[in-house]
Design brief:
This is Signaling peptide TAXIMIN 2. The protein is an all-alpha fold. Helix content is 81%, strand content 0%. The longest helix has 34 residues.
Length: 73
């Protein structure tokens, strides 16, 4: 069975572009958090910051999938 939800992709595209910008910020935070956690491994907050940044990096894919599943075939 073919998935026929191109409308969900088109509607979600502007939101995914905004999420892409947020994910770029997340990538910068992840790099900084990784460097800081290597310099000072006693600070556990930097590893949590890196995990939050990874979630921000995955955000565009999650947004597009959510919009695609909201539109019925």
């Amino acid at each position: 069975m073919e998935d026929c939800r191109p409308l969900g992709f088109l509607i979600g595209l502007p939101f995914a572009l905004i999420a892409l910008l947020i994910s770029l910020v997340g990538a910068v935070i992840w790099i900084l958090g990784s460097i800081l956690s290597c310099l000072c491994p006693c600070c556990a907050c930097f590893s949590g910051l890196a995990n939050l940044a990874v979630d921000l990096i995955k955000l565009p894919v999650k947004v597009i999938r959510w919009f695609i599943h909201q539109i019925p075939c």
